[in-house]
Amino acid sequence: MSYQRYWNESIETMPREELEAYQTEQLKEHLKYAYEHSPYYKQSFDESGVKPEDFKVLSDLSKFPFINKQIERDAQISKPLLGTLTAVPEEDVVFVSASSGSTGVPTLSPFTKTDFDEFQDIQSRLFWAAGMRPHDRYVHALNFTLFVGGPDVIGAQNLGALCIWAGTIPSERLLYILQEFQPTVIWTTPSYAWYLGETAKKQGINPATDLAINKIIVAGEPGGSIEATRKAIEDLWDAEVYDFYGISDIYGACAGMCSARNGLHIAEDQIYVEVIDPVTLEPVKDGQRGELVLTTLRKQARPMIRFRTGDIAIFNKEKCECGRTHGRIQVVGRLDDMLIVSGVNIFPSDIEFIVRNIKELNGEYRVYAISENFTTKFKVEVEKHADVTITNEELSEKVSHNIKARLGVRPKEVVILEEGALPRATHKAKRFIDLREQ
Ligand SMILES: [Zn+2]
């Protein structure tokens, strides 16, 4: 059976100028809406001396103040339950997700009925772009408890796929589902996709031949956009890996890979993207790394105007070979996980890229930030394959050399461990450990 090529062709392939004109019109309304309905934006715009009418062209958005997770949390605490950022009465809210974050009070993300439907339509669009079709059987292996990714399964259902609401269950039960139902698509994190495949093998199940999975959607860690990591998971499963990016403060998934798998198309009809230097707060040049700042264009329950995500990414606005015009992001890591060593920005994902391309290593790794004489250094732990013939010293030097060659700085130490020495992640891998004194 042949299907249409795009989920929503007119939106997804809209010429860039039309798309930007559309964003401009949406933003004019959205800024006005936020100012008139959200107590927080009224106060914040007034304090910054800006009015919604000051926005005429897209670059005018830079006149408006940023918000961040801390502001979001404070606004929530100041007026329970949903906080002063919220722009609708509670009776209009039909869904909230909560993100625990690393510290303090979980932040709630509210949706009206319309917000929720539009959110799910984006999920359908991203699933479609990743190649999911109504004949697929999809197993949703994400957490359902308060997590914004939980309801994403509805987007797959609206697309017409047969959906299996697995959630985060023990691996043995999930493997049982994969064997019994023979689903074709699964969504999980990259580290769990790897762990699950390895666990299957230990139980005598070959994920490549005994299971029907031909697409793995991953999110939550940079691995899905690191080619060598993707390739390792793909070989293990004999399946294609598609990276998605989501953020609970905005939507579940906001961006996802198409068949070209060169960056993640972000839903630019719903989200306006800026990339800034996290220190100067000025926009970076096109194609350069910077902090991703997102603005909702239509979300009624809680508009997000210039939300600093803390994610470091590259944004590419060139039209993709798939025909879609919406720009593509590539997230390289969390600002919190960024190490500055001798003036060079280093992310765990940079180390992952290197480690995955050394054949003596199995791809597991950890990066430690350490301080020595008030200077930041880093140490890397890796695992070698059981059958490696070179010595640990030689292997350590090889890793160190490759890191220096790619990043321009040498790690203080590379520790070679036996296979299985590092703790395995079931869901989100802890790859970065900060041992510096505060
Ligand atoms: Zn594309």
Automatic annotation (TrEMBL):
UniProt name for this protein: AMP-binding protein
GO aspect biological process, one term: phenylacetate catabolic process
Domain of life: Bacteria
Ranges that cross the membrane: none
GO molecular-function term, one example from the UniProt record: phenylacetate-CoA ligase activity
InterPro entries per the UniProt record, alphabetical: AMP-bd_C_sf, AMP-dep_Lig_C, AMP-dep_synth/lig_dom, ANL_N_sf, PA_CoA_ligase
All residue ranges annotated as the AMP-dependent ligase C-terminal domain in the record: 343-436
Residue span, AMP-dependent synthetase/ligase domain: 57-294
